[in-house]
């Protein structure tokens, strides 16, 4: 069985490929993978120059003990770039061995492309991931329509990832005039599952890794011990991809929403909040942040008082996840830099914190609001990696604050209504962000955080 994998990033290499490799080695599966470069770069080519092999270094705390395992990934036997090898891609679509597609193209990849929609049958020119997948499926339909059900498993961290991708493919097919026969085949023979993944994959390990004695590995991936993959869709997937053959943490559920809320509101929201507040007070990593004597209590109170009450799952399930999250944050093997989590916060903050603020509504969420205020404070200086348009708009507002034309509270309100207005932030929340931002400006971020976390100055650093 062959998997077509759109994406060669660290996450898929330390998650899906790690599972496929273990299924082959430990459960007798025969899973081969072809890597497809989602954008026109040389990532796949460089991996294939190393034989399509790399090491996954898995380290963390599990069952109260330190665990460590190395897995050399050997299930990838081919790779291609649709931009430089369109014929190879079309040939891949004609391979009846292909029964599964996986993808991770970041939150930006599952998006409509008007340019691709206008290409008609000039398929080889497509640029977007949904465009490439539609081209792949059109070729499969035209040549091997009876090759068996194809399962599509996107892992991008957006709600309803599979359903959204399916809708984009249907729309692209319409734009290309592929006709009702294709749409009927698509509905019958291609199953898009919604999925939710969880594993912290910070990138390459801090120490050099060898593929074999004397053979350096240029592409090793460090992963934590924990992993989970929740799937919404038919269990028939297991007939072609036996994810149940090992002790993998893979679960079929009828509704992903409560699990997505749990993961995004606890792990990702706290990550984004601590990345902003921690950076503002000079803390470098996740592990340092949770053990910091001001940041740590603030994060704990934020979780217990403002996030946990918004979750729609049994209390013990929430408690188990949050306890595990704290252990994962403290993973002594991983130096997860706040700076990398801070990347693109203007989009991540609404996506990760927005629903919490909305659910809190009139009740307000002053602890959460501090995370947003800390990020706004950071925009005052240079050095953030984020959308240039957003940074330019916020910089313009800071200039008006400097000239006395705007208060910091007004700046907060304008940013939350404009560049970060993907969420209709409740008014009490906007006011809380504004007053934190003002206090950060006058007292400094550490003193302001100490006040909001209710940590006595004498007890703090
Ligand atoms: N690393 C983690 O801990 C982790 C865990 C769970 C989920 N994720 C999700 O994975 C994503 C990041 O992936 P990664 O950690 O492998 O990083 P990465 O930078 O190593 O890989 C990113 C991949 O996305 C592709 N890509 C980027 N923009 C694209 C676009 N506009 N269209 C198509 N493809 C595009 C790149 O070519 C590359 O293959 C994030 O969006 C995150 O939400 C990451
Ligand atoms: O990958 P990013 O940069 O979008 O976000 C950083 C982390 O919050 C994220 O990668 C988590 O580690 C991951 O979502 C855990 O499953």
UniProtKB/TrEMBL annotation:
Gene3D superfamilies: N-(1-d-carboxylethyl)-l-norvaline Dehydrogenase, domain 2 (1.10.1040.10), NAD(P)-binding Rossmann-like Domain (3.40.50.720)
GO cellular component, one term: cytosol
Keywords: NAD, Oxidoreductase
Mannitol dehydrogenase N-terminal domain span: 1-232
EC number(s) reported in the record: 1.1.1.17
Chain ranges of the Mannitol dehydrogenase C-terminal domain: 255-382
Gene Ontology MF annotations: mannitol-1-phosphate 5-dehydrogenase activity
Catalytic activity annotation: D-mannitol 1-phosphate + NAD(+) = beta-D-fructose 6-phosphate + NADH + H(+)
GO BP annotations, alphabetical order: mannitol catabolic process
PANTHER family in the cross-refs: ALTRONATE OXIDOREDUCTASE-RELATED, MANNITOL-1-PHOSPHATE 5-DEHYDROGENASE
Family named by the database record: Belongs to the mannitol dehydrogenase family.
Protein name stated in the entry: Mannitol-1-phosphate 5-dehydrogenase
